[in-house]
Design brief:
elongated; single chain; mainly alpha; Arc Repressor Mutant, subunit A; 3 strands
């Protein structure tokens, strides 16, 4: 959701620090390393090709050949993006004979995709 340039953000009329709220925030704030890791994770979601791959995997476990066909991409391009997704533990693979099938790594990834879709469809 972007704020249009003509819209102004509302600000407080006076500068007042709410110590109790700040105390709660400070207690709950993750460490700097965790926040950096979280930012890196969201960067992975910032690429539309990777989002398209994740959406296919949200629906079904598929091999690279199927992904390439479904997305109109080369197997090489799909493999490159899968490598990034796998490094970030968003997808996993399993071998079955000569084929390697990919799927979302766990329920957290399903939830992120489902909630993201729900949010943008509102």
């Amino acid at each position: 959701m972007k704020i249009r340039e003509t819209e102004e953000l509302e600000c407080c009329e006076s500068e007042e620090v709410h110590e109790e709220r700040l105390r709660i925030v400070r207690e709950k704030m993750p460490g700097e390393e965790e926040l950096c890791d979280l930012a890196e994770l969201f960067k992975v979601f910032g690429d539309s090709t990777r989002i398209r791959i994740l959406f296919v995997l949200f629906e079904a476990e598929v091999c690279v050949c199927d992904l390439a066909q479904a997305l109109g991409m080369t197997q090489s391009a799909v493999s490159h993006q899968l490598r990034i997704l796998k490094q970030n533990r968003l997808v996993k693979s399993r071998r079955e004979g000569k084929s390697v099938f990919y799927s979302l790594s766990d329920g957290h990834v399903y939830a992120i995709i489902a909630q993201g879709l729900e949010h943008v469809e509102e």
